[in-house]
Write a structure and sequence with these properties.
Elements (H helix, E strand, L loop, with lengths): L2 E7 L5 H12 L3 E2 L1 H11 L3 H7 L6 H7 L9 H19 L2 E4 L3 H4 L5 E8 L2 H11 L8 H20 L11 E4 H4 L1 H17 L2
Parallel strand pairs: 1-3, 1-4, 2-3, 4-5
């Protein structure tokens, strides 16, 4: 059984940066943007569309009403769920790796030896990262934007997994990147990954 690190994260908390550091440190592939490309290739949907619809929803009611409810016809989000479920399962069966987001912690239950991590951070830390990555956003809109992203990400996760996004019991480890920084968080995760490998 392959060893996989799954990283769930609040928006702009540094989860993707941590995953990239881990990939270099542990010399194992990281599937984040690359995973988007694989899903786009399989689905025929544009990668920008997948970036939003494959990990976010506009709320629980929109998820329910977007489902046709008859004839076995799936909504676009449900189609994407099936595709990314299959891709994530195949990647984890193939090699040790890091998978960012997309409910990988839930999808890989019983299919891989996972270290499931949730990254969070205080709002000031996240605002700073958001402003650095998107110069077009207004500073006074940051908090609202971040909360909206988290809300839609949580709705998607909760709907498809039946679990609560960000709830500690769903993960092996939760880390505050605002307090420790992305480098230290990556070091902690890498240390646990290596220790677990030695115990095999």
């Amino acid at each position: 059984m392959k060893k996989v690190i799954t990283i769930s994260r609040q928006f702009c908390s540094g989860g993707s940066s941590i995953a990239q550091i881990l990939s270099r440190t542990l010399s194992i592939p990281c599937y984040d943007g690359a995973l988007l490309e694989k899903i786009a290739e399989k689905s025929g949907f544009d990668s920008d569309y997948i970036r939003e619809e494959g990990e976010y929803s506009k709320g629980l009611l929109s998820m329910i009403f977007s489902h046709s409810g008859g004839g076995g016809v799936l909504s676009n989000q449900e189609k994407l769920w099936v595709i990314q479920h299959n891709i994530i399962s195949k990647l984890a069966a193939k090699e040790d790796c890091i998978i960012v987001g997309r409910c990988a912690d839930h999808i890989l239950k019983g299919k891989a030896d996972c270290l499931n991590v949730f990254i969070h951070a205080n709002m000031d830390f996240r605002k700073e990262r958001l402003l650095a990555s998107d110069p077009d956003i207004k500073a006074d809109k940051c908090v609202r934007f971040l909360k909206k992203k988290d809300k839609s990400r949580a709705a998607h996760y909760n709907y498809f997994t039946g679990q609560i996004w960000g709830e500690g019991k769903n993960y092996h480890l939760t880390l505050d990147a605002g307090k420790f920084g992305v480098e230290i968080c990556a070091q902690i995760i890498a240390s646990l990954y290596r220790k677990d490998q030695k115990n095999l």
